[in-house]
Amino acid sequence: MTSLASIVEPEGQEEYPIYRYLTTNGDGTGDFDNIGDYTTPRTVSVTCRASEKIVSHFLSVHIQDAGTYDPAKYGVLAALTNGVNVGYYGADGVEKLRLTQNPIKDNAEWLHYGQGVIEAAGAGDMVQRVWIDLAGGVSDGLKLYPGESIRVTLSDNFTGLLAHDFLLHGQRLKF
């Protein structure tokens, strides 16, 4: 899958809502469909551009797989060995805050961090959507300044999934 980087941003507006996929390039371009063997870890991110500040409200997680939902599995794969980590990184590339205390290794662990929905789709597919609150009770949300990022690191084999992506919901403020 390719990125949705070609979406036109409103001209002349100082602030507006954004929905940006975490991608391999971090800037809205690159791959955002995280289906593959990432036993050599893969990182996808949203990195704040030089001309903006992002106020992050939610990170949505989308997992789709063929089969029946099982909280002890990831999609309908077996539980993962190394899992998925989510973090907030400074412009220097150093992790400032781990947003998932432990790696996510199964469907149920995503629900510890946010509100979720599990539904059937298509011919018996399982779809799990989870919205992680990045505001954490702070009314303004988690602020990203130029060079700072939200990163997801995948450290397992996800080749059996039908869909697997992460979307940042927030507000963009121009400098």
Structural account:
With 175 residues, the protein is mainly beta. The protein is built from 1 helix and 10 strands, in the order E-E-E-E-E-H-E-E-E-E-E. It has one helix at 107-113, and strands at residues 15-21, 42-47, 52-66, 84-89, 95-98, 114-121, 125-133, 142-144, 149-154, 163-174. The strands form 2 sheets. Strands 1, 3, 6, 7, 8 and 10 form a 6-stranded antiparallel β-sheet that branches. The protein has a 4-stranded antiparallel β-sheet with strand order 2-9-4-5, with no helix packed on it. Strand 6 and strand 7 (125-133) form a beta hairpin. Residues 1-7 have low confidence and may be disordered.
Low-confidence stretches: 1-7
Series of H and E elements: EEEEEHEEEEE
Count the beta strands. 10
Instruction: Write down the CATH class.
Output: Mainly Beta
Terminal Cα span: 32 Å
The tally of structural domains comes to 1
- Quaternary structure type: single chain
Strand portion, in percent? 35-45%
The overall average pLDDT, rounded, is 87
**Biggest sheet overview:** 6 strands, antiparallel
Shape estimate: globular
Figure out the total of helices.
1
Assign the CATH architecture.
Sandwich
Structural class: mainly beta
Taking Cα atoms only, what radius of gyration do you get, to the nearest Å? Answer: 16 Å
What is the CATH topology? Answer: Jelly Rolls
